[in-house]
């Protein structure tokens, strides 16, 4: 799951991003509205955590841009403007949820996950196939009752493969969905993570490589 944090206070932006990464999300951060629009145009985000009072391009205009372009990215407005009138205005602009500052991290993470489930590609909280069980809320995974102890990247890859339900997922899509914008597409990061995931899944093998296309369960 990929999230964009758009917040002009850089320290707060990095704190939010760090907390979301620890919860297993791939996160990019920007500090202005024009940068938010640029990133949203380049990458397919599930959720944008959007401060309303952004420099250069106001957060409200970022929300309008997403709505006007029919984006499937869900909008969580995170802002100090927390009055009822502010919340109503934000939701009327097209925001899917509104969380005033100050906030508690568990609530932020829960709201981001809820928005992911409401996206165009909904993810049920429990994914099961071929003896695999993946709990996307508790962030646990097991095979035939054996705990898999997955890293965040391995968990994200397995979630994407389970959601595809047997369809092939390309390495490019895995890189887009499970890594942030700083990932180098030429490092072989997907191949390395896939190898480690296969080792943890054990035998019989569950992930097959479709040569020149991608991977599938």
UniProtKB/TrEMBL annotation:
Residues of the Response regulatory domain: 2-116
Keyword Lipid metabolism: no
Transmembrane segments: none
Domain of life according to the entry: Bacteria
Domain OmpR/PhoB-type, first and last residues per copy: 124-217
Cited PROSITE patterns: OMPR_PHOB (PS51755), RESPONSE_REGULATORY (PS50110)
Positions of modified residues (4-aspartylphosphate): 51
Record feature DNA-binding region, as residue ranges: 124-217
Assigned keywords, A-Z: DNA-binding, Phosphoprotein
SMART domains in alphabetical order: REC, Trans_reg_C
Protein name: Transcriptional regulatory protein CutR
